[in-house]
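Let us begin with a simple case.
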Amino acid sequence: MSLLVVSLGVSGCGHNAGSATSPPPGDPARPAATPVVLGEGRDRTGSRSASDWASNAEFVVAVTVVGEVRGKIAQEDLEREEGMISREVVLRVDRLLWSAERGNMQAPQEIRKQAAGWVFNNNNGTGERPFALTNASRFEVGHSYVTALDWVDDPCSEDAMKGSWAGLGAFGTIPFDSGILGLGEIEGRVQDLRGVRTDIPTLRTDVAGRSVDELAARLAVAERKQIAPHQMACEPED
């Protein structure tokens, strides 16, 4: 079994309150109306169209979140009683749906990735709340998703096998609860097919309610654009 670290395809910070979150399947004890703080992010790659997925991803996989680890709060944030709390999630890869068939890379069977965590403020009485990026999934325990994976080489190594899996942009993941594309968690809340956004044309919208075989067929015929490699600076650990 391969265990690889994957990073979010979107970066950003919170600034506004979102709507309520729903408990994940099989977790009735969790409060059903915890407010979610939404933040705007910056996509690392395009992710809206089938062409974006086919051009930027090595694999598209169906995954289920099987665990999460809460990060430590930075000392500076503890002292000022305000800040963010990181979160790492564990994804079980349930099925390989599509492959770009580039190189000798193998699809992972299990992935650890950094995901949106929580924000807290003990100075104004709001306490701790889940954090999510606009139009993106939080990857919550018990929920399933279809997600595109892009391999990013380690900028500090010349070994092509050293690196990590990264997501695309905010639309590079589609909820997939009960095996239905479009059903599940987005922005920390559970939506049914009526909640799928239609004001922004995306692959996520196009395949909502359809089969994963149709998704794979769309990717197979999608235009593959020549994408310049994402240059990252080497930042050695202390």
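The second case is a distinct protein. As before, the sequence precedes its structure tokens.
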Amino acid sequence: MRRLQHGFSRLTKSHLLSINFQRFSSLSFLCILSVLSFLSFSLLSSTEDKQPPVASDSVIRGVDDLPLEQRRAFLRGTLSDWRIDTDKQRGISPPPIQKPYSPDAKRLDLISSDKFTVGSMSVRDAVRNRRSRRDFSGAQFSLEELSYLLWATQGISRLDRDQDGKLKAQYRTVPSGGARHPFETYLVISRVKGVTPGLYRYLPVEHQLLMIKEDLGLAQQVMNSCYGQGFIGSSAVTFIWSAIPYRSEWKYGSIAEKLVAIDVGHVCQNLYLAVESINSGVCASMGYNQKRMDDLLKVDGKNEFVIYLAAAGKLAKKK
């Protein structure tokens, strides 16, 4: 390639110097320049020297585009005082604690936490027995069991409001930096007694299930989006948590992303212990195709995106 360019450079210089401009009209000279320019562009555009296309600002990049040091930087957090540069400090109102939904949407009441009869195992035993379990039977969860698992992972134990009814504070069953709770819980339900299989979203304020769509084949789609992990396809319920980062960014600015990653671990650990306490199994996974999972939930992949998931079910009998 370099030899061609060098030869071409010598050719163009020698010939241009030897051209008798008086013998050519200005039009002929322009034609020669056009040909030379085209040949030069063709040589420089050779596949040997092509660079990868530069992504536009609208393209959402993954961490694989970042060098190692930058990937680790978010785990360390900021070295400056993040408290002075937040939307909370600017007096901007906080984002809602729950995504809105249509009042006409189909909703299913869950069992209230004060009526639970399941989950009586001691904390000590649940912690000691906790394992990732992937061998599920074809048995169903009861609605009470599902209600208990949702309450244990994102349930609201108390809401404080001011005199105008405006929310002041929320207290959930899991910790979250500044009580921001930047997650929505989606459920792919396959086997829950009395619940039509399909995609749902948990409404923690109302303690209800919001139906998004009925779909008997959704579990298979999720499994395919998780690179064929069989235990996901055979689960009774798959919990899929999406992150809405701005809920944490509003208060914590540049350290919010670190908090979101920590907080989702709190949520999933509660699920593990709650599932163990009803003698069932669960296994978490980050092994999924990000775009396919975001598309499945119909989230934009920018302001809301899938961050973690876990498949749960009744345990298969040991052989």
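The domain at 73-314 is CATH 3.40.109.10 (NADH Oxidase). Strands lie at 107-109, 156-161, 167-172, 183-189, 198-203, 208-214, 237-243, 280-285, 305-314.
Keep these points in mind for the review questions at the end of the chapter.
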